[in-house]
Amino acid sequence: MNPAPELANPTRAVRLLHGALVGGLAMSGAVFVLVRRLSLGPTFPLPPILAFVLAGFTIIVVLLAARIVRPTIPDRQVDQSSDAYWSDAIRRGRALILWAMTEGSGLVAVIGYYLTGVPATAIAYAVALGTLIMFRPSRLEATGAA
Q1: pTM score
Q2: Is residue 3 part of a domain?
Q3: In a domain, 78, yes or no
Q4: How buried is residue 45: exposed, middle or buried, by Cβ count under 10 Å (0-12/13-18/19+)?
Q5: Do residues 57 and 127 lie in contact, with contact meaning Cβ atoms separated by under 8 Å?
Q6: Per the domain annotation, does 26 fall within a domain?
Q7: pLDDT (tens digit, 9 = 90+) per residue, 90-127?
Q8: Which domain holds residue 30?
């Protein structure tokens, strides 16, 4: 089994990846809301209960990410640099799982808003986007000394 490849600048790579996920989710939300506003959404009727199912799914996945996945990512040691912290492939993988769960659930919510137009899905999308922003790399590596 081959070990994970070494990154030249792991902190920059992780921050760039997180920024791309946040930017992608924000742009997706803007596009779906704009299309919904301009064309009034899909032409086939959907039951409003679908919106509440999708919003509930989004909130549950965000809570699972925050309560189960986030605690598995240890804080950075006081004497450890950011690059040393993010050099660990397991730590990067867990952070990626956290971010992917949060972004994916946000996409489910914004698609639910596009399909139904119910504000509950827009609120769930905002919660997912806010959570993804909150779990930025500098926050994940925060030491207890701060």
Answers
A1: 0.88
A2: no
A3: yes
A4: exposed
A5: no
A6: yes
A7: 899 999 999 999 999 999 999 999 988 899 999 999 99
A8: 10-140
Other beta carbons within 10 angstroms of residue 132's beta carbon come to 25
When divided into structural domains, the chain yields a total of 1
Q: CB neighbours of 9 closer than 8 A, spacing ≥ 6? A: 83
Instruction: Note whether residue 33 is domain-resident.
Output: yes
What is the rounded CA–CA span in Å between residue 80 and residue 83? 8
List the structure tokens of 59: 């909130």
Both tokens of 18, joined, read 């997180």
Which of 77, 93, 97 minimizes the C-alpha distance to 85? 77
**pLDDT value at position 136?**
94
Q: What is the pLDDT of residues 33-72, one digit of tens each?
A: 999 888 866 777 788 899 999 999 999 999 999 999 999 9
CA angle 66, 69, 74 (to 5 degrees): 105
Q: What is the rounded end-to-end Cα distance, in angstroms, of the chain?
A: 38
Query: What is d(CA 37, CA 48) in angstroms, rounded to the nearest whole number?
Result: 17
Q: Given pLDDT bands bounded at 50, 70 and 90, which one contains residue 146?
A: very low
